[in-house]
Amino acid sequence: MVEEELKQVEAPEYIGRYHLCSMIAKGGMAKIYKATDNLIGRDVAIKITDTSDPSWAKIKPETVMRQFEREVQISGQLSHPNFVTVYDAGQEGHLSYLVMELLEGVTLDKLIKTGQPELELREKLDILIQIARALHQAHQRGIIHRDIKPSNIMLLPNSQAKLMDFGVAVASEATSIKIKEYDSQVSGGTPYYMSPEQINKAQVDGRSDLFSLSIVAYELLTGTKPFVANTPFNLYEKILRSTPQPMKELNPSIPDKVAAIISICLNKDPHLRLQSIQAFADQLDEIVNESFFENEGKAITEETLRLLQKYRESFTFFFDLDNSQIYTLLQVCQIRKYKKGDVIFNEGEVAREMYLIISGDIRISRATSDTGSIIISMMKRGDVLGEMGIIDGGPRSASATAETDCQTLVLHQVSLLRCDDNTAGKIYRNLSHILSSKLRITASRLEDLSRRSNI
């Protein structure tokens, strides 16, 4: 059955060490297959480009190869929880292939079309925030995606968003990538989601991706594309000259602040947009977490302050912070109390917050293959957990449950941006010390386990 299916799509049964199972997607210049890595024993996705495909008669094979090489180089330089992970790449004859993690989820184009899974406004904004933060990292590395569109964004069951396909990305001179735009006959972008700069074939920067992501945001929140026409020429004219219908006319439930941010980022002139995609993410994140910010500092009672003063020296998190800096930090934190058995966060959830235990104990556990769980560690007063939520905003690697009644100091990812640079710098440094200590403990345990296994 598999062989017949692969023959229909003109693919070999094996490429490298990978056993192709079935085609799962088809793009303009590549096909994507589900495959098995027989060496490691895991399922993967393989993107295969055929330079001999006669349908690309207008594009030279060497141009296709340069585009493939660019995607390999760019994907290899980027590592972020919201980018698809690339494992391997290679070439066999006229077939070039890129091996990636196999994702199970739904792309935004299908989600917009079907309305499934049904998402609340907060969840839709969180998708945009995740993708914007990932793109910010790419922009810092001098990489512009150029093809932001719903079909290149996948939502996983754990609410994590993944951005795919750097096939038409460009790299500035700030990176080590040598392939430049003039090396390729393939222009970047998909018409409905192109920025004015792309249409005009002008130089692009991160603000071009911001325009494209804002088109995705408009469509995700209203169900309608902001620019629609019956011919490419008319579509480009609309993107260059017309103003989209106000979002609130299409969906009155959209908050004014959200509509205003997206409208600003759809300005034709990149200088009139927000000047970074990071600012876009931060402003949306503040709106999503307004309830958190409204309660910042309000739960800091005299009793809490006495506890913090009493145990301050044993809290690595507060190391080297003076009284005014601790006060500044407390103004952007919340106090949360949990009863014994309460779940604080679950494994796989997208992380946005970190926790400092003020009192009580918290159990950290990880799921096992037999649907059970194993306790990794017990956390006590003064310990920090969930700190990766502040650092990279990726999915939680374990679950946290209150072992006893406990009280925690909670810091949100965006709240830290409200601290002054000196205070925030010290907190990031202290978090690096905490992470370093945890890594040393883990390494020691692994070494001890290795010794025991050799006895």
| Tertiary shape | globular
Helix content: 25-40%
Q: Which stretches are poorly predicted, pLDDT < 50 over at least 5 residues?
A: 1-9, 180-186
Assembly annotation: single chain
Please count the helical segments: 15
Structural classification:
alpha+beta
Strand order of the largest sheet: 1-2-3-4-6-5
- What's the β-strand tally? 19
What secondary-structure arrangement, pairings included, does this model have?
Elements: H1 2-8, E1 14-15, E2 18-26, E3 31-37, E4 42-50, H2 61-77, E5 86-92, E6 95-101, E7 106-107, H3 108-114, H4 121-140, E8 143-144, E9 153-155, E10 161-163, E11 170-171, H5 196-199, H6 206-222, H7 232-241, H8 247-250, H9 256-265, H10 277-288, H11 290-294, H12 302-311, H13 323-331, E12 333-338, E13 343-345, E14 353-359, E15 362-367, E16 373-379, E17 384-385, H14 388-391, E18 399-402, E19 406-412, H15 421-453
Antiparallel strand pairs: 1-2, 2-3, 3-4, 4-6, 5-6, 7-9, 8-11, 9-10, 12-19, 13-18, 14-17, 14-19, 15-16, 15-18
How would you summarize this macromolecular structure in one to three sentences?
The protein has 455 residues and is α+β, with helices and mostly antiparallel strands. Helices cover 37% and strands 21% of the residues.
